[in-house]
Amino acid sequence: MDREVQQLVEMGATAAQARAALNKYKDVMQAAEKFFEGEFENVAGDDSGRTHQAHSSATSRDPDVEMDKEDDDGELEDDEGSDAYIDYDSDDDGGMPGDSGASKVNDPYAGIFFSKDRREEVIEIEEESVFVSVPEINEKVEVMTQGRWMAGCAEGGEQSFLFSLYSQLGESQLSDLDGVCPCPSGCGQTVKRQQSDFFAIYPKFSTYIQHLQSKVPQRCPKCQTDFCFACGEKISQDASDPLWHCSNLQGVILGVGLFMIERLFEQQKEESEIKETTERETKRRKTRDIDDDELDTGSGKTKGGVGYAGDLKEDSSGQAEAQANQFAKDSKIRALLAEVRVYLPSLQRPGGARPSDYLPHPSSLTHLRRRFNLITSELLRNDSLADMSDRHGLYFELLEWLETISSHESLCSMMPMPIMRSVSQQTVVKKTNTSTIRERKIIYEGSASPRELLEAISLQAQAALKGLESSKPPEDPSPEPNEEQKRKTVVANKGKSKGDALAEGNFDETAKLYGFCNRLLATTVQIDRSLRELKGDDFVTRMHESLPKAYTSASDTIYVDAGDTEEDAKEAYVKWATSSRFEYCDLTIPTTDNSDETLNYKHYFNNEIRMLANASIPKRSVAIAKELAILTTNLPVAWDSSIFLRVDDARVDVIKCLITGPEGTPYHNGCYLFDVFLGANYNQSPPGVKYMTTNGGKYRFNPNLYADGKVCLSLLGTWTGPGWVPFKSTLLQVLLSIQSMILCEEPYLNEPGWASNAGTPQSKAYSANVRRMVVKTAMLDALQNPPEPFEDVIRTHFRLKARSLKKQLDSWLKEDDHRALASDGAEYSGAGRNSSTSSSNDFKADINSLKSLLNDL
Q1: Quick check: helix, strand or coil at residue 443?
Q2: Which residues of 700-736 are buried (b: 16+ CB within 10 A; e: fewer)?
């Protein structure tokens, strides 16, 4: 009976409560159910056993994390200047209504936010693989060793749960209770457990389940008592499925199942990496062979500018094959995830919850945090909503897991908890007289939580839905089904995932993306609702404060303090730019009357925009939706250079872009404005892009940026080279190309025929002239007459950079060649052509004026 008492103590009962429950109800699971119903709340006695699991979990907490304590009046003490971590399930607040302490024990992290700054060092033993012969399938299978079973666990308290379960269900010499199963009738008969009974890794998860179904029900050869081989309690032979009998089975099935999922995922990832490496090497060899042939024949072509020359074409061969391979891989992972998900604790299980759903094994949370979280992290770090939508089957199954986890009080706390990821590994070999031991020292660090990763994708989904507003699928006019109809629908669709429904339904791309985005957002809402119900409003509010912030419509200016040092300014700049890089705003020209005339826009492409005022082109809408999803969270932000976008609130195809010049170039810290329009044939054709920072059409800042605003770029079809690939190329690629390849270190080399003149006097003279144009137009004029709608962005950009920019201007003045500012630097292609020194005073005057404005900021 001591063992049963210990089980109930681990579930949250005191030793006295456990004995009272077992005296009245002989079955440990029934006793546990009655305990959680509150039947033994009034039983007094020693409470020492109740702290066992809480102590185990506490050992895994970061000692640097301090918890806010409540004072006698119940008010939280406010410790200014430090991050507070609040235990919302502390004894002082009384917990949830009807909670007798079970949630604290089953979920050792309830109500606690860990800092992502955590760092844990773990030593893991590398054991040789063990294989056993299995007559049922006529082959050898691997048996999970204890090291494999516990691998990846960074928490001390969680390690004890894993160790305890493995010792109990596997072969062990630690105690008389471990590794053997005594007959519950007390006849003295025992059955020896083998590691292969519960920890064999079969080729298929379904085969493993069949093995357990035959192994778990045991009959004592001495007294003929039927009992469960996992927990040793009596079991009825007519039970519909013996695998639901106890939480031990749930713990081992989840552990083995998630190990199989993780292994398959890692195998697929490794295969993809090997294939990509092989393909890159093949392309390099082909390129070298072509170059060698051209050198031998003397037919090599003259380079025509950085990144723009040649007759190269996008190699689209193999795309269909790659997509088919990806679909096949996703199908395998999805099917395995669906099989294992059946054994997740769930109070909404079809047919009713089982005892282990109410009382999941303590290792359940451990398995999910160390194995499932890593898969979640890999999949949700995908920065392409379009790719997720194309792979909707796998991602819908992932969302099913997240919803199931978040709806159970013992598991839901893992949603906002940082994922511990391995950042370094070191193998240590220790030799003794009799053996060689290989150890791995692994460093784990905290990273974004599942809920935080989901939030980043949710922001993309919101942007995509805004892009689909003009062509969203018609709403179903049928009335809301009642509960009975919903139940019948669930039964009818049993075994089918939402991914299957989409695949079978012949949905067009608009409906597919629309459905995926709504499904994603619905999961986010459900997770928050579950957390609010189970953990309270304060818990969810605190969690939301740490999540990535959604894009917003342009609002009142928020002052950002530059701090006292350049490091302070850099930190403030990146934080500000991240929150300001993508916004919706009104780009229309205000009208004085209320006529229904088509609106005009403050935009170069105003006429084209007006022509498409009421157009509904589904394929275009889908392309724009995908584009917005990418841009929302993927615009580059850095102290050195950033990209800001403003999208019209009503017409999301109307865009303005501001790029700040990269460091190390003559464009550094200048502000360059572009008007962008996603035309009628987008994405079959590239977007319209016009350069607007030209000093009224006078200055040509770059061989690829004309004074009339033309942008020469092969992606836009305005230059030779790799062109726009329909439904694959993106606006983000265009913007990044402008930022990195046009606004470059030596713009002179972008001119066809001059690419071999790096470092020449002509190139240096061209860059000096660009710097003069930048100071006059992209800095001074930008501050004096900031273009709409970037007034606040430009002022904040220059104010936060004022200290470093003054040093930059002094350096530029020293580098100046004292020539006159030319409207096109090509005038300096001949060294010494213009020897005027008049620009020295003009350039210096512009710099002094700019410094004066910076001081005013």
Answers
A1: strand
A2: bbbbbbbbebebbbbbbebbbbbbbbeeebbbbbbbb
Bridge partners, residue 645, by sequence? 582, 657
pLDDT at 778: 96
DSSP string of 288-350, one letter each residue: HHHHHHHHHHT-PPPP-STTT-S------TTHHHHHHHHHHHHHHHHHHHHHHHTTS--TT-T
Helix (H, G, I), strand (E, B) or coil at 465: helix
The predicted structure's pLDDT at residue 53? 33
Is the distance from CB of 517 to CB of 463 less than 8 angstroms?
no
Q: 426: which strand partners?
A: 441
Half-sphere exposure in the Cβ direction for 110 (13 Å, CA)? 27
Give residue 46's pLDDT band: very low, low, confident or very high (50, 70, 90). Answer: very low
Cα-Cα-Cα-Cα dihedral of 836, 839, 841, 845, to 10°?
170
Secondary structure (3-state) at 415: coil
pLDDT digits (tens, 9 = 90+) for 684-733: 999 999 999 999 999 999 999 999 999 999 899 887 777 899 888 999 99
Q: What is the DSSP letter of 204?
A: S
What residue spans in the chain does CATH classification 3.10.110.10 cover? Answer: 567-856
Contacts of 469 (CB under 8 A, 6+ apart): 652
Whole-angstrom distance, CA of residue 184 vs CA of residue 552: 64
326, HSE (Cβ side, Cα atoms, 13 Å): 13
Q: Rounded distance, CA 24 to CA 298, Å?
A: 96
Comparing 627 with 308, the larger pLDDT belongs to 627
Among the listed residues 682, 750, 670, 746, the one whose alpha carbon sits nearest the alpha carbon of residue 716: 682
What's the CA angle centered on 673, arms 386 and 671, to 5 degrees? 110
CA dist 293 → 10, 282, 284, 502, 771 (Å):
74, 17, 14, 51, 41
To the query of whether residue 712 is one of the catalytic residues in this protein, the response is yes
Which of 153, 228, 517, 712 is catalytic? The answer is: 712
Confidence of residue 103 (pLDDT cuts 50, 70, 90): very low
Contact yes or no for 310/304 (Cβ under 8 A): yes
436 Cα distance to chain centroid = 40
Give residue-wise pLDDT tens across range 5-41.
766 665 557 777 778 888 887 666 667 667 666 677 7
User: How is residue 711 annotated by DSSP?
Assistant: B
Sequence-separated (6 or more) residues with CB below 8 Å from residue 550:
459, 462
pTM for this prediction:
0.72
Cβ count near 273 (within 10 Å): 10
Token output for 48: 């020492």
Please state whether the peptide bond connecting residue 789 to the residue before it is cis, i.e. omega within 30 degrees of 0.
Answer: yes
Q: What region, left, alpha or beta, does residue 437 occupy, with left being phi > 0 and alpha being psi -120 to 50 degrees? A: beta
Is 652 exposed, middle or buried (CB count within 10 Å of its CB: 0-12, 13-18, 19+)? buried
User: How many beta carbons lie within 10 A of that of residue 628, not counting itself?
Assistant: 28
As a whole number of angstroms, the distance between CA 806 and CA 811 comes to 9
Amino acid, single-letter form, for residue 765:
A
| Closest to 470 measured CA to CA, from 624, 629, 645 | 624
> Could you tell me whether strands 119-126 and 139-143 are parallel, antiparallel, or unpaired per DSSP bridges?
unpaired
Dihedral over alpha carbons 29, 35, 40, 46 (to 10 degrees): 80
The mean per-residue pLDDT over the stretch 157-177 comes to: 73
CATH architecture of 567-856: Roll (3.10)
- What's the Cα-to-Cα distance from 810 to each of 334, 668, 708, 847, rounded to whole Å? 60, 13, 31, 8
State the Cα–Cα distance between residues 360 and 247, nearest whole angstrom.
6
Q: Which two tokens stand for residue 746?
A: 């030596």
Coil, strand or helix at 504 = helix
